[in-house]
Design goal:
This protein is α+β, with helices and mostly antiparallel strands and about 250 residues long. About 50% of the residues lie in helices and about 10% in strands. The strands form 2 sheets. The protein has a 5-stranded mixed beta sheet with strand order 6-2-1-3-7, with no helix packed on it. Strands 4-5 form a two-stranded antiparallel sheet. Helix 4 crosses helix 6. The longest helix has about 60 residues. The N and C termini lie far apart (about 85 Å). Belongs to the universal ribosomal protein uL30 family. Keywords: Coiled coil, Ribonucleoprotein, Ribosomal protein, RNA-binding.
C-alpha cells in the first residue's frame, strides 16, 4: 500500500545534462592523460638514447685527443690543441663610473647586471667586443661539466618574454623543437659543441644570475694575467674554477 503513495522526485533536465557533460569530460580527460603518459614514456626512451649518443661522442673526442697527444710526444713533435669554440663571460663590475661605450657593449652582450653570465661563440666580432669591456668582465673556456652544472642549476628559459625555470623538457621542446632540440641534454650538447642552432639555443637561455664567489675576488682593479694577480680578463680553462665558486 505504501508504494502507491511513494513519490519519486523528478530530476531536473539541467542536472541530467550537467551529469552527462561531466561524465563525457571525465572520459575525455582519462583518454588524454593515458595518451600523454604514453607519449612521455616514449619521449623518455628517446631522450635516454640521445644522451647515450652524446656521452659516446664526448668520450670519443677525448680519447682521440689523448691519442694525438701521445703520438706527437712519441714522434718528438708538438701537439697544437684545438681552438676553443665556446666562451663563458661573467660581469664582475657594477655601473658606477662606467663610460657609455663599455656600458653599451655590455648591454649588447646581455650583461646588464653584476654577476650576470652568458655563453658566447668565439669569433672576431665577439673577441673585439670583449677587448672593449675586458676590465669589467672575466671570461674563459668552460668545460662540459661546468656547462652542464650551470644549465641544470641556474638555467632559465625565455618563454613569451618571461623568465621560466627549466624544470621540464616540455618547456624546451615547445620553444626549440623546430631546431631539433627536445630536451635539456640536447640543449647542453648544442651549447657546448656550438652547433648550427647555437644562436637560437643561446637566445632561449636567460642570462645566468650567479652569486658572489665563495672566498671573494682577489682584486677587481687588476687583470688575472698580471704579475700581482687580479680578476678581470681571459682565464682560459681556469674560468671553470671561478664559476664553481659562483654557482
Amino acid at each position: 500500500m505504501a508504494e502507491r503513495y511513494l513519490v519519486i522526485p523528478d530530476v531536473p533536465e539541467q542536472l541530467k545534462l550537467k551529469k552527462e557533460t561531466n561524465e563525457k569530460l571525465a572520459e575525455e580527460k582519462a583518454v588524454a592523460v593515458a595518451a600523454k603518459k604514453k607519449l612521455r614514456s616514449e619521449m623518455r626512451g628517446e631522450l635516454k638514447a640521445r644522451q647515450t649518443k652524446f656521452e659516446k661522442e664526448y668520450s670519443d673526442n677525448n680519447k682521440k685527443l689523448i691519442e694525438l697527444r701521445r703520438q706527437a710526444k712519441a714522434e718528438g713533435n708538438f701537439f697544437v690543441e684545438p681552438e676553443p669554440k665556446l666562451i663563458f663571460c661573467v660581469r664582475i663590475v657594477g655601473i658606477i663610473k662606467l663610460s657609455p661605450k663599455p656600458r653599451k657593449v655590455l648591454q649588447l652582450l646581455r650583461l646588464r647586471q653584476l654577476h650576470n653570465g652568458v655563453f658566447l661563440k668565439v669569433n672576431k666580432p665577439i673577441i673585439n667586443m670583449l677587448k672593449l669591456v675586458q676590465p669589467y668582465v672575466a671570461f674563459g673556456y668552460p668545460s662540459l661539466k661546468t656547462v652542464r652544472e650551470l644549465i641544470y642549476k641556474r638555467g632559465f628559459g625565455k618563454v613569451n618574454k618571461q623568465r621560466i625555470p627549466l624544470t621540464d623538457n616540455e618547456i624546451i621542446t615547445e620553444s626549440l623543437s623546430e631546431q631539433g632540440i627536445v630536451g635539456i641534454e640536447d640543449l647542453i650538447h648544442e651549447i657546448y659543441t656550438v652547433g648550427p642552432n647555437f644562436k637560437k639555443a643561446n637566445n632561449f637561455l636567460w642570462p645566468f644570475k650567479l652569486s658572489s664567489p665563495k672566498g671573494g675576488f682577489t682584486c677587481k682593479r687588476h687583470g688575472f694575467n698580471e704579475q700581482r694577480g687580479g680578476d678581470w680578463g681571459n682565464r682560459e680553462e681556469q674560468i671553470s674554477a671561478l664559476i664553481k665558486r659562483m654557482n
